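Write out the bound-state structure for thiamine diphosphate.
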Amino acid sequence: MRAVDAVMECLKAEGVEVVFGYPGGANLPTYDAFVDAGIRHVLVRHEQGGGHAASGYARATGKVGVCLATSGPGATNLVTAITDAMMDSTPVVFITGQVRTELLGTDGFQEADTLGITMPIVKHSFMIQHPLEIPRAIHEAFHIARTGRPGPVVIDIPQDLSRAEIDYEPVTDVHLPGYQPTTEGNQKQIRQAAKALASARRPVIYAGGGVINANAAEELCALARADRFPVTCTLMGLGAFPAPDPQWLGMLGMHGTRAANYAIDEADLICCIGARFDDRVTGKLSEFAPRAKFIHIDIDPAEISKNVPAHIPIVGDAKNILTKLVAEYRALEPDRSRLEEWWQRIETWRERHPLAYEDSADTEIKPQFLIQALYEATGGDAIVCSDVGQHQMWAAQYYHFDKPRRWINSGGLGTMGYGLPAAMGAAVGCPDQTVVCITGDGSVQMNVQELATCAEDGIPIKVFIMNNGYLGMVRQWQELFWDRRYSHVDMGRFPDFLKLAEAYGATGMRFTDKTTLVDDIRAALATDGPVMVDVRVTAEENVYPMIAPGAPARDMVG
Amino acid sequence: MSLRSGRKHTLSILVENKPGVLTRIAGLFARRGFNIDTLTVGPTDDERISRITLTLDGALHPIDQVVKQLHKLINVLKIRDLEPTDTVARELAMFKVAVDGAQRAEVMQICEIFRGKVVDVTKRSLVLEVTGTTDKIEAFERMVRPFGLVEMMRTGEIAISRGRGET
Ligand SMILES: Cc1ncc(C[n+]2csc(CCOP(=O)(O)OP(=O)(O)O)c2C)c(N)n1
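---
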C-alpha cells in the first residue's frame, strides 16, 4: 500500500479520532489518503490554529492531539503552537510534509528546514529518509508524546516518500533504547517525604500541571486530606484540587492570592508536585520560601533542583508516587493538632485579604464581574479556555475550577491567539460539554479566523471577548512600571466584533449591561453553534494582587 | 541552582548513530547557555552507535543539570561524567612552527622529550604531532610558541575509563 495509507492505519491504531490540518503540495498524498481513511479531519484556517486546536483537544481529553501541515510556510506557521505545547508539556504529534528528497537542500519551492527550525522546541522529531520508516516513526512519535513528561513530536515526511509503495506491517512494539522514563518513584525517598510531611509544622502543597497530566487529581486530594495540608496550585494546575475546598488557598505566584503566597513565604516544608518553580511563581528566586525545605515530585529529572534545590527529590509518575506517599503517611499516624497554629495564621490571611474588587454602582461591567457571571451562568461546569492577558488572570482567579482538564490556557509561553483555537479543539474532543473561550480584544484577533472553522464544522464554542479597548495587561504594566506612558496599547473599539462574528458564519452578540449579564450569558450559551460575544467592560481595571516582576512573593501589591 | 563543581568535566556520551544527533546536542548547549570546551565524535565498535566526548568547565555550569538535559534527548543512550583518576584521556595536536637552521634542532629535541613526531619539514618550518593529556599539550605549546608558532590544531579530548568495565 502507499506509505500515506499506512499513515492512516497507524493513526487509527493509535486511536486517533480527529486530525486538525491544512493541505498543500508537499502533503497532498496524505490528503489523498484522507478520502478513504475514515478519520475525521478538521480543516483549520491557519496552521497555528491547527496546532493550538490539537493542543486544546489533548488537554481537554488527555489524549494525543494531531496536527498536519504542509512544508515550508505550513510548517513554519506551526512554530508557535509547537513551542506552546513544549512549554506546557502537551502531547501533540505534528506531521509535516516536506519537499521531494531530490529537492532537499536546494532551496526548493516551499522548502524549509523544518527539523532544524523545530529542534529546540520539540520533545523529539523524525525526518523520514525511507518510506519503510514511516509506520515505526508514527508509533514512536505517539509513544514519546504521551509518556514521561508529555510534549510535542514532529514527523517530517518528504512528498515522494509519502507516496511510495510499501509492504505495510503493523508495528506492535516500540523500543527506544535511549528513552526510558522513570515512573515508579524511589520508595526510600517517598518514605522520607512522608516523614518530612509528618513533622512539618507549616507545610504547603504546591501542585502544577504535571498533576493534571498524570491524571493524579484524586491522589492529590487524598494526600491533602491525609492531614489538613494547605494546597495551592499554579496557573497550569488549576482544577487539580477543587477550588471550593476549605484546604484550598487559591493560586500562587504573580497574581495568586495573598494567602497562597504568604503561606509559601512562611512555610517550613513545601511539597511541590508536577510544577517547576517558574519565575512567574517564585518572584525573586533567592527570596522564595526562605525557610522551607523542598520535596519535589516530578516525572522529569531535569526539573529537580533546576531552580531551587530539592531536599527530597522523587522522580516518577505523580499518580504512582502520591498513592504510595499517602499510604506511607497514614502509617506514621502523625499528630494532627500540630497544624492548628498554621491554620490559624492562614485563616487570618484569608479573612484579611480575600480576592476582591470594587464593583461598579451602575450598569458598567467590571471584568471580574464578567467572570463571576460566567461562573454562575455555566454552573461552574464548563471547559474554560483562555487567551493571554488580564482576562486570563481574572478567569484564573474568579472561575473556581473544581475538576481537572477544565482550564486550558497558555501558561508557559503565554501565547496570545491560543484561546479560540484551543477551545475549538476542546469542543471537538468533548462534544457533550459546554466550552467557553474567555479572551481579550487583542488576543482574539490573533486567531479569530478559526471561527470560520467552527461555523463550518458546527463546533459550538462560546467566545466571550472581554473588550476593554486595550492590550490590557501591557497597559497595566505601563501604568504601574512605566509611569502611565501608554505606548501602543490602545486598540480602540475595532473591529466590530458583532459583524465579524456574522461574517464568519457565527452568531454575534454584544453585552453592555451588568444587571442582565447572567441571563445574557445564559442566552448565548443556549444559542446553537459558535457564538462570539463582545462584552464591553471597564477599560482601565488592574489585576490584583500582584507581585511586581523580580520582587519577592511577600511584597504583594494591590 | 545545581551545584557547580569547579573542575573541568569530561562527558562521555553514547548516542544512536542517526542524522541530526550532533545538532541536537550542540543546539541544547547553545540554547541553555552551556559552553562546550571541546567536542569529538567518532564511531564505536557498534556501527549503530557513536561516541561523543565533550569537555566543559564545571565552574561555569551546573554539571548535573547539563547531564540531565542531555539525558532527555531521545537518541542519547548513555552519559558518563568521567572521573579524572579513573580515566585515560588523550588529545592529538599538530603544531606548525616557523624555524630554520639552528633553532630547528632545538625544537626537534623538545618534540622528542614530549614524545612527539615530526610530520613535515621544510626549509623554514616544522609540523609536529603530539598526543597526550590536555596539560601535556598545553605545556608543549608553551615550549614551542616562542620559536614562532604559525598555527596549531587540536582535536579535543577522547577518553576511556581504566580497567575492565565499559566507559
Ligand atoms: C503573541 C503574543 N504577542 C504579544 C504578547 C504580549 N502580551 C501579553 S498580554 C498582552 C495584552 C493582551 O491584550 P488582550 O488580549 O486585549 O487582553 P487583556 O489583557 O486586555 O485582557 C500582550 C500584548 C503575548 N503574550 N503574545
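---
Chain A touches chain B through 22 residues (CB under 8 Å).
Chain A has 22 helices and 20 strands.
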